[in-house]
Specification:
Main location: membrane
Largest sheet: 2 strands, antiparallel
Number of strands: 2
Distance between the termini: 42 Å
Order of helices and strands: HEEHHHHHHHHHHHHHHHHH
GO molecular function: monocarboxylic acid transmembrane transporter activity
Subcellular location: Membrane
Keywords: Membrane, Transmembrane, Transmembrane helix
Helix content: over 70%
Strand order of the largest sheet: 1-2
CATH topology of the largest domain: Growth Hormone, Chain: A
Pfam families: MFS_1
Number of helices: 18
């Protein structure tokens, strides 16, 4: 009733203003020129249960001033944001499950097409690299259209790649359909999924991104055994049709990702409304090249590139290392992936919760610690690979620390720039991520061919991770203004 009363009061105010203005027109007489100051306040509008304060804007009718309530703020940190977060979790779960299908199908592909191990292993390298390299394309689609369009398009492309792959006649055929098409589809899904999760949350952004990233870990933990059962029951060709059905669920999740209305921050507003509108329209059309001028961001993505190289080497060679030089059975080696996924799931949730309050734990410090300890585990692999128990210790420890970077990437981008730059910046980050995944495995494989020992490959992985952690130390120097203002805010 209070809202109805306010609306009626607003109508009366506008009517009185119109009548008073008309009194000054020729032909109108008998009305005094005394001006009445009529102001309809929003005090009569009671706040909602969420204690949301309505914004107002002022309209002048001659001498009258009327405050008109604006629409309710968008669903930031509440309401539909949780639906989007669930959709992001499910999308990431399916995406990582499909990429892990490469390991499930590797032996089958090698036996059926009788190609070399190096050529067959290129399927995983192509899929992972294309999914990363398509990050900028996903950002363009998300900026120009929406995250919803990018995710749904990725689902259709990945599903088509699975169906076409079911009729493959050679590994070269699969490199195009299985590696490129499915990788492209996943790339169009992953970047917008993380971006929109970051846009829908502000105060709980780190926690939300931790939950979204946990979908990757949960998918890595639960989907490989399911995909193996599908392959055993339906053969690999039949399983591709089932996987295509999984890919179509991206369309369902994408449909739930309606574009958010990001609230405006008055204290950061320096342009007029018209200038600001033109600037926003231009920046949302294509990738924002200005993010590449941010020195702090360049250091951050440089560290991410080195992290991707180290991760790719471990991801590709850890199972073979455990079997050939660690004495593990193939089944024991396959369980290391699930253990890695379970520890990553724990890490995602814990990291997101801890980083949700930067005053408690600085995200940059967490990034440094995560890469530093990941490097320590990589360097220690020759000591931990000797028994299955120590292999489990390695998989669990490495999974805990290496996953922190993915959770904290988006919050650090927002910290160095702003939410409006998140989509473009994340696209560039995924581009370097894909390059790292494409370069590192062949280099490590070539090193193994020369030495017939995997330990040197893991030393390279540890070196990449250690160098990435060192690069992070220079971010506060490159972004002094950001860290100085954040320090002043925490002191105040």
């Amino acid at each position: 009733m209070s809202f109805v009363g306010s609306t009626l009061s607003l109508a009366v105010a506008e009517s009185a203003a119109h009548h008073r203005n008309s009194a000054h027109e020729p032909g109108h007489s008998g009305l005094t020129e005394d001006k009445h100051f009529l102001r309809v306040r929003r005090d009569s509008i009671q706040p909602s249960d969420e204690e949301i304060a309505l914004k107002t804007h002022t309209t002048d009718y001659g001498c009258e001033t009327v405050d008109i309530p604006e629409p309710l703020p968008p669903d930031i940190d509440r309401g539909w944001a949780w639906v989007v977060l669930v959709a992001a979790f499910v999308s990431n779960l399916i995406a990582v499950g499909i990429t892990r299908a490469v390991g499930v199908h590797y032996v089958t592909f090698k036996e059926e097409f009788r190609d070399s191990a190096s050529l067959t292993s290129m399927l995983g390298a192509v899929m992972n690299s294309v999914s990363g390299l398509s990050g900028p394309l996903a950002s363009v689609i998300a900026n120009q259209l929406s995250c919803r369009v990018s995710v749904m398009a990725g689902g259709v492309i990945a599903a088509a790649g699975c169906i076409i792959s079911a009729y493959a006649t050679s590994i070269q055929y699969l490199l195009v359909t299985y590696g490129f098409l499915i990788g492209l589809g996943i790339g169009l899904v992953y970047t917008p999924t993380m971006v929109i999760a970051g846009q829908y949350f502000e105060y709980r952004r780190s926690l939300a991104l931790g939950v979204a990233t946990a979908g990757l870990s949960f998918g890595q933990f639960i989907l490989p055994p399911i995909l193996q059962l599908l392959t055993d029951y339906y053969t690999w060709r039949g399983s591709m049709f089932v996987i295509s059905g999984f890919c179509l669920q991206f369309c369902v999740c994408g449909a739930l990702m309606r574009p958010p209305i990001i609230p405006e921050r008055p204290q950061k507003r320096a342009l007029t409304q018209e200038e600001d509108l033109v600037k926003c329209q231009m920046s949302l059309r294509f990738l924002d090249l200005k993010v590449l001028k941010n020195a702090g961001f360049l250091l951050l993505v440089g560290a991410m590139f080195l992290r991707s190289m180290g991760l790719a080497i471990v991801n590709v060679h850890v199972n073979a290392y455990a079997v050939k030089q660690g004495g593990a059975t193939e089944f024991q080696a396959s369980t290391l992936v699930s253990i890695w996924g379970a520890s990553s799931l724990f890490s995602c949730l814990l990291t997101g919760a801890a980083a949700n309050d930067p005053k408690v734990v600085d995200p940059l410090v967490m990034l440094f610690v995560s890469l530093g300890y990941s490097a320590l585990f990589a360097f220690s692999t020759p000591l931990l690979i000797g028994s299955y128990i120590t292999q489990v210790l390695f998989a669990a420890g490495f999974g805990v620390y290496i996953t922190c970077f993915v959770v904290l990437m988006a919050p650090m981008i927002v910290r160095l720039m702003d939410v409006a730059s998140l989509s473009s910046a994340y696209g560039y980050a995924m581009l370097l991520d894909g390059i790292g995944f494409f370069i590192a495995p062949p280099v490590a494989g070539y090193l193994y061919d020369i030495t017939q020992d995997y330990q040197y490959s893991f030393y390279i992985a540890g070196g990449c991770l250690l160098l990435g952690s060192i690069i992070l130390l220079f971010i506060p120097l490159a972004a002094r203004d950001v860290f100085r203002s954040r320090k002043n805010m925490s002191v105040g």
